Amino acid sequence: MVKQSGSTWSDRFESSLNPAIAQFNASILFDIELLPYDIQGSIAHAQMLAKTGIISETEAETLVQGLQQILAEYQQGEFQPGVEEEDVHFAVEHRLTEIVGDVGKKLHTARSRNDQVGTDIRLYLREKISHIRNHLRDYQQALLELAENNLETLIPGYTHLQRAQPISLAHHLLAYWEMAQRDWERLGDVAKRTNISPLGCGALAGTTFPIDRNYTAQELGFERIYRNSLDGVSDRDFAIEFLNAASLIMVHLSRFSEEIILWASQEFNFVTLKDSCATGSSIMPQKKNPDIPELIRGKTGRVCGSLQGMLMLMKGLPLAYNKDLQEDKEGLFDAVKTTGACLEAMTILLTEGLEFRKQRLSEAVTEDFSNATDVADYLVTKGVPFREAYNLVGKVVRTCLEKSKLLKDLTLEEWQQIHPAFEQDIYHAITPKQVVSARNSEGGTGFEQVKIAIENAKLLMNQ
Question: What does the alpha-carbon distance between residue 298 and residue 288 come to, in Å, rounded to a whole number?
Fold first, then answer.
C-alpha cells in the first residue's frame, strides 16, 4: 500500500492505513458538523498570522476568501468530504489548497489540530448553549401563562404518590418553572467556562512563532485565553458541565412528563390530550397515547448516558491530547439536539396539546382527607397542642373511613364529641379553596403567594 499524497501526517510514513483502520480512525462523518466553526476559527487564525507578520496580508486575504468559499459550498451542499479526509480540519485544509494553491498550506502555521478542535467545540457549544437557553425561556413562558390562567384551579398535591394536601395548580406549574430557571442559570455558568480560547496552545506546549493569542480570542468573542497550554488542549470540563446541565434539564422534563402521563390516564383523568399532540393505537381505536411525554421520558436516558460516557472518557487520560478525545463529540452533539428538541416539544404540548379538566380537578380535591392537616391546625388555633390535635384528627379519619364518610360530612355534634373546641367555622376551614388560600407563608400555595411568585418570575425573565 502506497502512502496517499493527501495524508494528514508527514513523510515519516511510507504506506497508507489499512482501509478498515482508516474507516475506524476517521471522524469526518460526525465532526463535519463543526465545519462552520472550523472556518470561523481558521479565519481568525489567518488574520492573526498576518497581523503578527508570520504571513503577508495578501496571503491572509487569499486564505480568508478561500475559507469563505468552502463555507458557502458546504451550506449549499456542494462540499461533502468522505472518510479519506479523516476529519473536518484536514478536509477544510485540503479543499482550501485546491482553491488557493500552495498558500493554503500556510494556514496551519503555529497551530495544531489539538488546539484547533478545542476551539471548534467551544465555538459550537457556546452557540448551542445560547439556543437551549432560548428554548428554556419559551418553556418557562408557557408554564407562566398556564399558571396565570389556573391561579385558583385546585389540584391534589401528593407525597409518596398519595393524596397529601390540595394546592393551586399554578403553584404546581411554577415548581417546574423554578427548575427551569435553575437550568437557565446553570447553563449561563457553563457558558462562561466554555468561552475560553485554547487557540495558540499548539499540540501541547505552545509555539515558537510570535503569535497573538489574545487577538484571536477577541476576534472569536472569547472572554479570555487558557493560561496553560497543556490544560488548553486537554480540557473537556466545559463539555462535562454542559452534559450535566443538559441531564438535569432532561430529568426535570422527565419528571413533568411522568406527571402528565399519569394525569392523562383514565385513573387520574386530570388532563385531556388534544389531537395535535397525541397518537392512537394500531389495533385499539379508543386509545389516545401521550407520545410526547413518553418520548421525553425515554430520551432522558440518552442524555444522561452521554454524561456518563464523557466522564468515563476523561477519567484515565494523561496529559495532554489523546485520540480518545475524538469520542467527545457524538454524545455531545446528540445531547445538544435531544435537549433542544425535547424542550421545544414540551413547550408545544403545554401551549396547544393539553387541556386541564377543571371540573374533574375540583371533584378530586373534595373526595379525600387531604384537609386533615387543616383540622389539626384549626384545633391549634383554639389552644390545643399540635401533637394532641394531630392524634385526635388521626382518630377522626379512621372513624370516618369506618363509616364511609368524609370530614365535611360530619355533623357539628360529631365534631364537638371529638373536641369541644370545634365550632361552626370548621366547615369553612376545611373547604378546599380555604385550605389552599390559608397557606399564605412565603413560597406557599396560598393564592396571594402564587400571585407574587408569578410577578417575580416575570421580573426574572425580563432581566
Answer: 18
- pLDDT tens-place string over residues 333-380: 999 999 999 999 999 999 999 999 999 999 999 999 999 999 999 999
Average pLDDT, the chain: 94
Residue 357 grid cell: 379538566
Q: Is position 419 annotated as part of the catalytic site?
A: no
Does 247 participate in catalysis according to the annotation? no
Look-up: residue for cell 430557571?
181
Q: How far is CA 315 from the centre of its chain?
A: 24
Spatial separation of the C-alpha atoms in residues 280 and 285, rounded to whole Å? 7
Per-residue model confidence as pLDDT tens digits over 386-401: 999 999 999 889 989 9
Give the C-alpha separation, 61 to 67, whole Å: 10
**Beta-bridge partner residues of 225:** 197
Identify the active-site residue in 10, 160, 276, 441: 160
For residue 423, what is the DSSP state? -
Active-site residue identified among 56, 130, 265, 281: 281
| Res 457 pLDDT > 80 | yes
